[in-house]
């Protein structure tokens, strides 16, 4: 599936086989997994890569899609949408950026573009994000794009020998309608050369 999204600073395109080396390099950075239960093996990264390529063929009512985020033509991260429950249109959001690009608004800009795509093009009903409660950057990102915290699951993850909590965020169609203009501003608020 050939999908391309543009923001003021970023280009997001559906992942292709040509993105395999970037995904391997991205997932080799252990800093991305500070708040995850495990660091994925190379084999698991490969399986997920091909999973997203195959699942994209099921769109728009089912499946999954992974976008590669590019800044000035350089791949800097990825964001994915996965259908959890086709009957009710519930999808899940996930994302990761190279640490060099953290805390500069790139994640927020990419997620805003994905939210617009998910609700306008895939016509989803609900988008979920499951975030480690300690990951304040990711929690802040979810809140900044208008996602609503629906739950707090205690001791839901086992990370480096301790249980950690997980926050559940969601955006319903009605929430999206309220946030749509703000999201459109987010994807256009940075000068192109930034």
From TrEMBL:
The alphabetized UniProt keywords are: Acyltransferase, Transferase
Which residue range or ranges hold the N-acetyltransferase domain? 10-170
Instruction: Give the matching InterPro entries.
Output: Acyl_CoA_acyltransferase, GNAT_dom, N-acetyltransferase
EC number(s) stated in the UniProt entry for this protein:
2.3.1.57
Q: Which GO terms describe its molecular function?
A: diamine N-acetyltransferase activity
Q: Which residues form a coiled coil?
A: none
The UniProt entry, under SUPFAM superfamilies, shows: Acyl-CoA N-acyltransferases (Nat)
**Broadest EC class assigned to this enzyme:** transferase
Q: Which PANTHER family match?
A: GNAT FAMILY, PUTATIVE (AFU_ORTHOLOGUE AFUA_3G00765)-RELATED-RELATED
Q: What is this protein called?
A: Spermidine N(1)-acetyltransferase
Organism, as annotated:
bioreactor metagenome
């Amino acid at each position: 599936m050939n999908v391309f999204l543009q923001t003021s600073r970023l280009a997001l395109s559906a992942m292709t086989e040509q993105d395999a080396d970037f995904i391997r390099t991205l997932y080799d950075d252990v800093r991305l997994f500070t708040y995850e239960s495990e660091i994925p093996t190379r084999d698991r990264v490969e399986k997920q890569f091909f999973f997203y390529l195959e699942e994209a063929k099921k769109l728009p009512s089912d499946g999954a899609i992974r976008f590669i985020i590019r800044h000035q033509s350089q791949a800097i991260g990825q964001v994915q949408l996965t259908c959890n429950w086709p009957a009710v249109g519930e999808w899940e959001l996930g994302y990761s950026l190279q640490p060099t690009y953290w805390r500069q608004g790139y994640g927020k800009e990419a997620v805003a573009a994905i939210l617009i795509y998910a609700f306008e093009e895939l016509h989803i009903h609900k988008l979920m994000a499951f975030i480690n409660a300690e990951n304040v950057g990711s929690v802040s990102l979810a809140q900044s794009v208008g996602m609503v915290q629906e739950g707090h699951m205690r001791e839901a993850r086992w990370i480096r020998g301790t249980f950690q909590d997980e926050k559940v965020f969601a955006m319903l169609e009605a929430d999206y309608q309220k946030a749509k203009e703000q999201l459109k501003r987010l994807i256009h608020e940075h000068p192109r050369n930034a």
